[in-house]
Amino acid sequence: AQLALERDYEAQRELETRYRVLLEANPAPLLIVSLANGRIVDLNGAATALIGATRAELLGAPASNELEGRRRGEFLEALAKVAGNDPLGSLDLTIRRSKRKVAVSATLFRAAGDRLLLCRLGVAEVARPRADDIG
Amino acid sequence: AQLALERDYEAQRELETRYRVLLEANPAPLLIVSLANGRIVDLNGAATALIGATRAELLGAPASNELEGRRRGEFLEALAKVAGNDPLGSLDLTIRRSKRKVAVSATLFRAAGDRLLLCRLGVAEVARPRADDIG
């Protein structure tokens, strides 16, 4: 039984590693948000960089603190609807800290009884160094 | 103790679901390959479609059965080297079944004592319907 527990532990560790690598290796900024409470469950480095905060600040924080739509707090429902109806659809939102516009597309899925949204933040313009950074 | 085991089981299930969603929601064809034995550990739907085989045929099969470089069997070592040296580098390979060229980039990571490669298959040309499919 001890051996079986150790095998389970190893398998869990390996799965965690693969999950983390998949999240971080994706060049798109990704957020996983719980529909039950609207909080950010996980996110990758591209997302923390785009939002302009630390991972510690963002984990567990309400997604609506960081992203805003036309009417506050309703965008998660709108995203879930987009995700359900049109896998290629997206919602235009604004990053609160930087006022930058992002096109957010989402995949809705169930895990452990909660509905989760995997959100991709699409940036229209490629980030470029500012003129005063160059010369 | 029973309750703790059930919690562990739930957590493992949730992690598996998130892992699977991340793998499948990525539009890029992705393969996870073991460096220890060269076999395909996992892959997403975009990769099965591009390779032109079923998931069952590909899971556990040697990656070198499906992808070929200039010299057979050495491309995994070459990929691991690319992954280690240059995160944006890629290796030109050919899909064996379709003879299609792909630029493969990779992320090397360790899990459960094995070294794994997360490989992204980049297709230069976008797939288009053939003329005789149109009309």
Automatic annotation (TrEMBL), chains A, B:
Taxonomic placement: Bacteria, Pseudomonadati, Pseudomonadota, Alphaproteobacteria, Rhodobacterales
Annotated TM spans: none
Portion of the parent chain present: 139 to 273 of 469
The organism's place on the tree of life at top rank: Bacteria
Start and end residues of each PAS domain: 15-60
Native species: Rhodobacter lacus
Protein's recorded name: Transcriptional regulator PpsR
